[in-house]
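Hey all, quick one. A colleague (J.T.) asked me to put the zinc ion job into the tracker so the inputs and the structure tokens live in one place instead of scattered across chat threads. No bug as far as I know, just bookkeeping. Sequence used:
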Amino acid sequence: MSALTAFNLQRWIEEHRHLLKPPVGNAMVWNSNFMVMVVGGPNQRSDYHVNPGEELFYQVEGDIVLKIIEDSCGALLYDAEFHLVDLGKQLKPIIEKFRDSPELRTCKSCHAVYQV
Ligand SMILES: [Zn+2]
């Protein structure tokens, strides 16, 4: 979508439902200075991301549990920085690489291992 125009969101969800599966679980409807994502739900991801722009997430099904980091040494565990072009293709290998690597999931500061 190149311009912000009215469209049938329910039809878009039906046409893209196959993309709303784990491990990514969401697909991008709009990507400009303002991102719009649809999440299939229920979403089991536990990663965090940093985006300098505004975002809107719409979850189709299930409850949302939004956790914040409270008990941490404050060190950055893993950082995969990339320019987002195709969420479905780019994010899945990053999630799998992190999930499958105990080394990447181990804090270099306090040696705690992030459980997936
Ligand atoms: Zn730590």
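Adding what we noticed when we looked at it: Residues 9-99 form one domain. The first helix runs from residue 9 to 16.
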